[in-house]
Design goal:
Blueprint lengths: L1 H11 L4 H18 L5 E10 L4 E13 L3 E3 L5 H7 L2 H16 L7 E5 L2 H5 L3 H12 L6 E5 L1 H5 L3 H12 L3 E7 L6 H6 L4 E4 L1 H8 L5 H15 L2 E4 L5 H9 L4 E2 L8 E2 L3 H7 L9
Bound molecules: ligand C2E and magnesium ion (3 copies).
One magnesium ion binds next to strand 6.
Protein name: EAL domain-containing protein
């Protein structure tokens, strides 16, 4: 109707709007070239078994080394890649690169890869994952795939079938950022996840005594424990938070307290210099 047209025209001529539209168009154009130009990198952050303080794996986190903008974080381009369909080839590149990187690590060290919902909707995800593993010669049990609850929000038979097929291949599935958005405890029981990663907002809330944080972590850890699911606390930044999440029942953790995400080249040094005393809880 007329009202709606007016609104759009108004928004379009809002000061700064045109500049933003232009900027976004440029970013999308650059994004289309970035894969061929080799501008994406994977950085890795250690996943730590908390009681023994042992690195059990690394999460791959993509970055875009833009020739002008510098290192662009995923939140600034993953949504654009999803909207433009570029997430398909980019997601494939990420899977293959992560598997190829992980093959150089000790054989008990895993690699975790984030998946976009769009990768489930299009193409043959189980086929791509199998090809990435076979191409690198990586054992399926060394690959963890992280999905968010938004995938289960639009839950359908095809999604569940894909998740089951991935697990049948021997790959493990983690629920990422649990607790924010629309995630509910019933998702944990509905699908056999191998791991639930509790969002860092709860870890922060637990240590600041904000109401609910600790209670939610305890409830999730208890439910997961009874179902044989590992719980990871995300975003551990302080010793206090580490002690909190351990006492609340989390067995694994990740966060700046241990190490930030680092380029691949730094991983061997990080791994070799890792010592129990550095991150001790006592
Ligand atoms: P995520 O999977 O939940 O990854 C954890 C994010 O928290 C990372 O941000 C990491 O750098 C950050 N982080 C780790 N420890 C701490 C901490 O102690 N404190 C705080 N404040 N933050 C911490 P990053 O790398 O910017 O990634 C953001 C999100 O982008 C990821 O959240 C994930 O959803 C998405 N993403 C990253 N890489 C990929 C990818 O390869 N594919 C897809 N589809 N999504 C990706
Ligand atoms: Mg993740
Ligand atoms: Mg997360
Ligand atoms: Mg996140």
């Amino acid at each position: 109707g007329a009202k709606r047209d007016d609104d759009i025209r108004f928004r379009f001529f809002e000061p700064g709007m045109q500049a933003r539209v232009q900027e976004r168009r440029q970013l999308v154009a650059d994004l289309h070239l970035a894969l061929d130009r080799g501008e994406f990198e994977l950085h890795y952050q250690p996943l730590v078994e908390l009681v023994q303080n042992r690195i059990i794996g690394f999460e791959a986190l993509v970055r875009w080394r833009h020739p002008v903008r510098g290192l662009v974080p995923p939140d600034a381009f993953i949504p654009l890649a999803e909207e433009t369909g570029l997430i398909e080839p980019l997601g494939k590149w990420i899977l293959f690169k992560a598997c190829n990187d992980a093959i150089a690590w000790p054989p008990d060290i895993k690699v975790a890869v984030n998946l976009s919902v769009v990768q489930f909707a299009k193409g043959d995800l189980p086929g791509t994952v199998a090809a990435a593993l076979a191409g690198a010669g990586l054992m399926p049990r060394r690959l963890e795939l992280e999905i968010t609850e938004s995938l289960l929000l639009h839950e359908n038979e095809a999604t569940l079938a894909t998740l089951r097929k991935l697990r049948e291949h021997g790959v493990s599935i983690s629920m990422d950022d649990f607790g924010i958005g629309y995630s509910s405890l019933s998702y944990i029981a509905k699908f056999p996840f191998d791991k639930v990663k509790i969002d860092r907002s709860f870890v922060a809330a637990a240590s600041s005594q904000r109401r609910g944080g600790a209670a939610i972590i305890r409830a999730v850890a208890e439910l997961c424990g009874s179902l044989g699911i590992t719980t990871t606390a995300e975003g551990i930044e302080t010793l206090d938070q580490l002690q909190q999440v351990v006492s609340l029942g989390c067995s694994e953790g990740q966060g700046y307290f241990f190490a930030p995400p680092r380029p691949l080249a730094d991983i061997a040094a990080l791994f070799n210099s890792w010592s129990q005393s550095d991150h001790s809880m006592h």
